[in-house]
Structure formats: structure tokens, C-alpha cells
Amino acid sequence: MSFKLTILGSGAAVPTLNRSVTSQYLNFNERRILIDCGEGTQMQLRKFRVKFQRLQFLLISHLHGDHYLGIFGLLASMNLTGRTSKLTIVSPPGLKELVELQFKTSKVYLAYEIEFITIESKTKELVFEDKVLKIFAFPMKHRVPTYGYSFEEQSKRPNVDKEMIKEYALTTLEIQQALRGENIEKDGEIISPNQVLLPPAKPLKFVHCSDSLYKEALVEWISDADLLYHEATFLEKEKDRAKATMHSTAADAAKIAQKSKAKKLLIGHFSARYKNTDKLLEEAQEIFPNVVCVEDGDEYLI
Amino acid sequence: MSFKLTILGSGAAVPTLNRSVTSQYLNFNERRILIDCGEGTQMQLRKFRVKFQRLQFLLISHLHGDHYLGIFGLLASMNLTGRTSKLTIVSPPGLKELVELQFKTSKVYLAYEIEFITIESKTKELVFEDKVLKIFAFPMKHRVPTYGYSFEEQSKRPNVDKEMIKEYALTTLEIQQALRGENIEKDGEIISPNQVLLPPAKPLKFVHCSDSLYKEALVEWISDADLLYHEATFLEKEKDRAKATMHSTAADAAKIAQKSKAKKLLIGHFSARYKNTDKLLEEAQEIFPNVVCVEDGDEYLI
């Protein structure tokens, strides 16, 4: 198992000198995933030494400029620097048309395949699965269709209980039988798998909650995340502005983390009005202690 | 008269850590103009302390991503930070449709007016004029419709020849008569304006030649520029690549400067393959000595 999350851009709407607009790079069991791709993401990838040719997935939360405008330049640069492998892009409706019009106008012909997966689901939905990872999308509550993403490790196989193996003197073939869920007949005795196996480790779960008003339904969809990112554009004292623009406060993000029993919370997408994150951190910590305000270039490991 | 050119991005196609993609900011007699707007231009404007709300013109040379993809984020940021004054955007066909689809998808409604001027001319054409400045567009030779821009100061009025004024003992009213081009009757003598006036100073001229193969016709359109910017993506030894991608070499740019009698040449849009500009400079200087390789953040005054 490997897990590394790199914050490429932690700002909201208008980029500042310290915070690029939203993008995060995720390496989850060697699946290389870009979550959102605001303007300048290709430069941030270079700056933080992420090889963009190895990206397999590009997940876009919603089609507000600060979350997707970097996609055209990134796709073109991938092409110019020799990409041939397929890229899968997941987004709400409309992105394929934007990409196609852009490239038609610029007369860009990609040498690699893009698979567009469009999500329109009203509930949590599986969008990708392989032997190590499942990716789910679920709807947020924003001014345009917006999705959160949950990255969930596939269930692990049970661990072998070494003491019991020794006690029953099981052979390698018999252990494999137990791991397949089959009973073992040994010296006239029936040994069931749960007598010689320990419960598997809990699969790893990372959840990315992009722009949204506080949404109670999230709690069910994102429960027990090892790491939860949730936007926190404003402080509670800017609640009116948060409601008008359909964003969360630091307290909102903390409530979601608390109710969904997250282990750790990352907050970001801070309005440029906040010169530092002290008050945002303080507000969130009052509700959920294990919280971090992300900065461009931060890396989080599990 | 005031003139300042700021290089916001000096690279080609794929941005590097040292060179952003193309954009230049021009303050010409207090007319504030952005020439090209590659991805990340709004960040470069901040970095080099140019107030983007004061921009009046946005001129796009052509619709390859490295020359225009920053426009959507810049227009949105102008809106979010309170712009109400009109912006004029000049470009080849297609940009208006891209901007409109982008904002329709993002549900962005601008609080300021954009005037789109679309250029399709096959020769040098006036696209804007006021009392201090004329802007002309002229076609380059590239893979998509591409335009160069010439910024020309309006003709100045003649200078008064102080010695002759003294000799003829002209009054203020009589001097004004001469400046209007009228003959003066003085003590029975007819004095023509050219007897008491000196020829006006040459109007200032800055020319921006974006992506193009070597194009001889430019020489006539851009003659006698005080400052000429011409792209120089490659060295002569990459001539084949230059032809295939329809770009110029440093020698091509220098030939255009020499034949058009420019006073000073700036070259840029260097391919990321060149780690430094020594050879590009050397190649150009052999043909046209007064040449500079531009860097992000450079400022040029006249």
C-alpha cells in the first residue's frame, strides 16, 4: 500500500502569489490521479516534481474556472512532450465539449486517447474500479453540478494467524485453501477459515470534498475516512457570503469530519481575504481537533 | 510620451520553471494593453505588479493555447475583483465562441462589457485609433490564423524654430497660425509655416511579431520600428523543425529586423530545448547587432 497526496493549489477563485487555484495530486497504490486542475496546474506539477506523463486519471469536481481551466494546457503539454498512453477524465457534463472546441480551434490533434466519463448521479456512485482501488463520486451542493470523490482501497485479504497455523500444523496448500474461504479437513477435523485467519486490515479511504454548502448527506457517503479534505472558503462570521456563494465555513468542514468520523481533516480553498489561516484553523479545531490548513506543496502520507 | 513593455512570459508552447508562456504588457501613452495571454498570465501580472483592472485592450495573436489560455481566468478574476469598465479584445476568429461557451458552462455572468474585435485581414489593417495611438494588425504565417500588431504613436505636431520666431518677432497668435499650417502676413511679408517650424519628432513605433515562419512581407508593414519583438523559437540548425512547426529561427528574426530597419530587436518564445540563450543571441547578433533575448519580468522603456 502506498498513499501520498500533494497539494498543488490551495486557494479559491482568484489565485494569489502564495496560493495557486485548486489542484491535488494523489498517488494511491500507484494509481496516479489529479483531482481538479485550476489554471497553472501544469506549472505546479513541474514545481513540485510530479511527472505529469504518468497521470492516469484526471477528476474534475466542477466546471468553475478555478477547478478546471488548467486542463487545456496540461493536455496540450502532455501531447507536445510525447504522451501516447490513455488518460481517463471524469467530470460533470460539459467538459468534453469545452475540450473539443478548444482543440478544434487550436487545430490540436492528440496522439493519445482520452476517455471521458461524465457523472450526473444524485447519490454516491462507483466511477472506477480495479484490483487495488475503487473511486466513487457523490454530489455536493454548489452553484453548478459538483462532485466529491472517495478513493477506497479494495478490501484486503485476511491475515494469517501464525499461532493457529502452527497449532494446526497447516501446509501452504491448506493456508491457501483457508484464504479462499474453504474449510480444511485435517486429521478428521474440520477447520473453518476464521479459526486460522485474522480479520483483514481496514481498507484505506481518502475523501475529497470540493466546493459546497454544508451538506448533511455527505456524512453517510464518506464515513470513516482515514483522510478527509473538505473545502473551507470562509469563517463563520462570513456565513452570509458563504451561503450566497454556496461555500462552506471552517466550522462546516469540521462538523462533516466529526459526524463522518474522519481520522484527519485537511481544509483548503481559502478566500484570498484571509492573510493567514490562524482563525480558520482555530474555528475548525473547536469542533474537530485533528485538522490541518493545507498549503501549496504540502505532502500528506498515510 | 510614455512607453514601457513588460515581458510576462517568454517561453514557447510548454511552460518551464523559468519561462511562462507568452504574454507581454504594454503601457503606450497610458493606453494599457495586454498582448497575448498564455496560461498563468494573471499570476504573472500579480508577480510583476501590473494592475490588471486597468487593462483596456487584450490583443491575441492567435489561438494556440500558449498564447490565449490565460484569458478565461483573467476575465473571471477581473469580474470577481469588481471590474465594471469595458475591455476590448482583438483576436482572429473563434475566441468569442470559446469565451462564451466557457462562461455559459461555468455560469459566469460578467459585470463589465467586452467588445470583441475579430480580425481576418490579409494585409495591414487599422484596428484601433485614438488621439495618441494607432494599433494595426497584420497577418503572420503560421499553422492557424495569426496576427502581428503595430503600435504607432499619432503624428506629432511640428516643433517651433525658436531662432526664426525671434528673427520674425512672431506673436503667440501668429505662432498658432503657423502650427495650423496657415501663412502669416507680417509687415507686408508672407511667411510660410515651414519657414518658422521644424519637422516633428518621429512618432514612436513598437511592433509585436508573434509565431510565424520567416515572412518577407512584414518588412514593408513594420518598417522603422523603434522596438521590434519577433519570435525566435529555434536556432538555424533546427531549421527543419522550425519549418515543420511554422516558427522562426533567431536568424530569421534578425533578418526581419535588419531589412525593416528596426532600431532594436527583442527575441523570445524560445523552445524549452535551449537551456540558455547564448547561441540564440549569437546567431541573431551576426545579422543584427542590437538584439536582446527577453526574460520573464524584463522591462523595456523608450
Mean pLDDT of chain A equals 95
Report the end-to-end length of chain A measured between terminal Cα atoms.
9 Å
The name of the CATH architecture of the largest domain in chain A is 4-Layer Sandwich
What is the topology, as strand order, of the major beta sheet of chain A? 6-5-4-3-2-1-18
CATH topology of the largest domain in chain A: Metallo-beta-lactamase, Chain A
Assembly level: homodimer
Over the alpha carbons, how many angstroms does the gyration radius of chain A reach? 22 Å
The strand count of chain A comes to: 18
Greatest chain-chain interface? A-B, 37 and 37 residues
Biggest sheet character of chain A: 7 strands, mixed
Helix and strand run of chain A: EEEHEHHEHEEEEEHHEEHEEHEHHEHEE
Q: Helical region count of chain A?
A: 11
How many domains is the backbone of chain A divided into? 2
Strand content of chain A: 25-35%
What would CATH call the class of the largest domain in chain A?
Alpha Beta
Helix content of chain A: 25-40%
SSE class of chain A? alpha/beta
CATH superfamily of the largest domain in chain A: Ribonuclease Z/Hydroxyacylglutathione hydrolase-like
